[in-house]
Amino acid sequence: MDPTAQREMMARQAATMVVVMLSFFVTRLRRIRAQLEPVPYGPRSLSQQHRLSTLQMIFNNTDDECLAMLRITRAPFFALCNLFRGRGLVRETSGCSVEEQVAMFLHVVGHNQRFRVVHQSFRRSIETVSRVFHQVLYAVGELRNEMIKPPTTATHPKIMGSQRWYPYM
C-alpha cells in the first residue's frame, strides 16, 4: 500500500472513531438528563414572594380588606373569576393566575390608578400589567350584553310625583 492510501485509511478510521465517541457521549448525556428529577415549583424570587403575600392579604383577609383593595367583596370576585375561567375569556398563564389578572384590572379601574402603581403593588412589569388589563377589559366587553343594562328612558315615579324635579326630568 502506498503512503497516501494509508493516510486516507487512517483519516477515515479516525473520523469514524470521533463519530462513534460523540454519539456515545450524546447518548449518555440524554440518559443523564432524563434521569434528573424536575425542580419543584416554588417562589422564584423576592418579588414573587411579595406578590403572593399581597394576593393572600387580599383574598384571605376580611371582606373589608378585599373591598378596600378591589372595590368588590370576595364572593362576587371569585364568581367573576370563575365566569371568566369557565367561558375561556381569561386564561391562566404559567406565572399569573386568573385571580391575579382580575385583581390587577380591578385595582386599576377601582382606584383610577396608572399601570406604574399596579406594577409596584403586584411586582409585575408595566408591559405585563398593560397586557393583562387589556385582556380582562376585552373579557368584560364580551359579557356586556349580560352584565351591563342599557339605560331606560322612563322617569322614576318618585321624580314624576315631585314638584321640584318633574318639569326638568
Distinctive features:
169 residues; mainly alpha; 9 helices
Topology:
Elements: H1 3-35, H2 46-59, H3 63-70, H4 74-87, H5 98-111, H6 115-122, H7 126-142, H8 144-147, H9 157-160
Helix content: 55-70%
- For the record, give the distance between the C-alpha atoms at the N and C termini, rounded to a whole number: 114 Å
Low-confidence stretches: none
Number of strands: 0
Global Rg: 31 Å
Number of helices: 9
Structural class, judged by helices and strands? Answer: mainly alpha
Largest sheet: none
Strand content: under 5%
Outline: elongated
The arrangement of helices and strands along the chain is HHHHHHHHH
Output mean pLDDT.
85
Task: Tell me about this structure.
The protein is an all-alpha fold and 169 residues long. It has a domain at 46-147. Helices cover 69% and strands 0% of the residues. It has helices at residues 3-35, 46-59, 63-70, 74-87, 98-111, 115-122, 126-142, 144-147, 157-160. Helix 5 packs across helix 7 and helix 6 (115-122) packs across helix 7 (126-142).
